[in-house]
Amino acid sequence: MKPSLVLKMGQQLTMTPQLQQAIRLLQLSTLDLQQEIQEALEANPMLERQEDGDDYEGTGGDGAPDAQDGGGSESSAPEQESLYEAADPAEATLGEGDWNESIPNELPVDTVWDDIYQSSASNLPSNDDDEWDFTSRTSVGESLQSHLLWQLNLAPMSDTDRLIAMTLIDSINAQGYLDDSLEEIHAGLDPELEIELDEVEVVLRRIQQFEPAGIGARDLRECLLLQLRQLPVGIPWLEEAQLLVSNHLEALGSRDYSLLMRRMKLKEEQLRDIIELIQTLNPRPGSHIEASEPEYVVPDVIVRKNNGRWQVELNQEAMPRLRVNAHYANLVRRADSSSDNTFMRNQLQEARWFIKSLQSRNETLMKVATQIVEHQRGFLDYGDEAMKPLVLHDIAEAVGMHESTISRVTTQKYMHTPRGIYELKYFFSSHVSTAEGGECSSTAIRAIIKKLVAAENAKKPLSDSKIAGLLEEQGIQVARRTVAKYRESLGIAPSSERKRLM
Description:
Blueprint: H1 17-26, H2 30-43, E1 47-49, H3 89-93, H4 113-116, H5 134-138, H6 144-154, H7 159-170, H8 182-187, H9 197-207, H10 220-229, H11 238-247, H12 249-253, H13 257-264, H14 268-279, E2 301-306, E3 309-314, E4 322-324, H15 326-330, H16 339-375, H17 377-382, H18 392-399, H19 403-410, E5 414-417, E6 420-423, E7 431-433, E8 439-441, H20 442-454, H21 464-473, H22 480-489
Parallel strand pairs: 2-5
Antiparallel strand pairs: 1-4, 2-3, 5-6, 7-8
């Protein structure tokens, strides 16, 4: 076949840059959106924040002047124009106080920096202010290794022992246990030092006396024993607790209380007191010291009840309002094709697109949140057990959007309700058929399982089969495997591990 040119007509969907920007903003969380807005404000001079009670005169709906594409006379600039004018260089260079003082050409030899230059620390609150906590506002989380090294610097040791101690501390994981065996640690030391294995074990014993108690243990038994040995001698049942941990920890882990009472020749009340003492110990001593920063959740939607009706509103504090800077928009001239004017025109168009994308995001989020609240009013009134089945398709049909759009809106978006803060994904759950032909959501079933476990007999906890039978008595047909899956998602241990002594 000869190559030839053929003209065909067709249709295809093309994602414009504006649509791509709107979709990207739609799936951002609140914190990511605030960062995106800050970057846009820094990159586009046409954008600015709109504060409460701060509005330009003669501006359109997007915050720009009505005649912004016209000649744009500078006489219509707002009174806030002075905020964008360059300050006098002399005023910008000199301030008040010590900054106005001239610096001599020759300084004494013992001159201190703070004697000549104003220190930024002078802006901090004085030490007399009890409310000022410098450590809590400037420090980051302390790691377990740094905490142990701080104690090591206070302990008198030889250089060789200090080297061994630092190697051991590096081998301690975040839970407080020693990851490597002493033989492996000893093999990794410099052979020229001629360090014996006994020396490594002696240094480990010294580290195990550091805080928190139980640090540097090689297994759970040693960790619990280290903590028991650091307790005061007069504590009741201390010796029995040490004996139980040393010889019968496996039986305690399997909840075989009858075997423990028989082997240790104890009564049920005595064994209960011993177990209560052991339960005061921490099996993960390193978890007390964490270096991670706290993560905060900013709700996107606020739901409150007013006059018997649930009302939905966007969190205005998390949604900063933007507008087009009227002064810069007036500088754009219609017929001017210079590079500066073209740049400003492009920035103005991008600012309008960005504001429109934000408005579209807020409107979509409001529609979806309203439909969720309308569908889950029973949950807001009565709790998890009244949660109704809900899938993305239901909300997509109600608001006239695609399921992928609903998925983007509900990801990493949070709703503040009188019952707490929940991710929008939390309100979606599959359904299980009931005996009457109705439907029950998986969230409601989880709430019922949690309620049944909380009310069970601690000596004879409910098995998964028993829970499935109790649910069937309530008209909810759930298989044992489904009960086990829901129980594990709730973080509830199996019945063999929930057994307790009353």
